[in-house]
Amino acid sequence: MASEDLYRGDWIVALRKDSIRRPDDPDGPAFDRWVFEHPGAVIVLAVDDDERVACVRQYRHPARGTFLELPAGLRDADGEDPLDTAKRELLEEVELEAAKWRQLFSMWPSAGITAERHVFFLARGLSAGDRGDFALEHEEAAMEMLWVPVDDLVDAVLDGRVTEEPIAVAVLAYDALRRRDSL
User: What's the whole-model pTM score?
Assistant: First the structure.
């Protein structure tokens, strides 16, 4: 396999072109695949005792819109455990701490173009926290926090009002676990 950097800058993502062969035909013809390098992310489904989810409303430039999302963040701190990243993001984005944590699952959001993995966590036993001297910047500075009942989120996902993959997957999984008494 040969690789060529197409873009590699100061930020944590990069784009490269790999010349590869099929795993089942190592002597066959080579072909190119573009790979978006990304360190991965954590997504936190924080549910309070009233079955409400801590959400954020945030502008996303690539999609040119404002979306309802869950607290989340990049796994950009070298060697940081995903759970520690999730705890940090929950505190930084919505000023919450959780007494109980459970990893729900880990997923490849688009394995055809990136090795990025999303690690999803459920946070319960919520209490107010203080982000300290951490300052929200850029789009995050205008981020709005809100509480949304789980059932309303399920309905919003199913009728197309909530369209971001991470929140849809997390909420539907939570609803399935709830129905199976697996929480």
Answer: 0.90
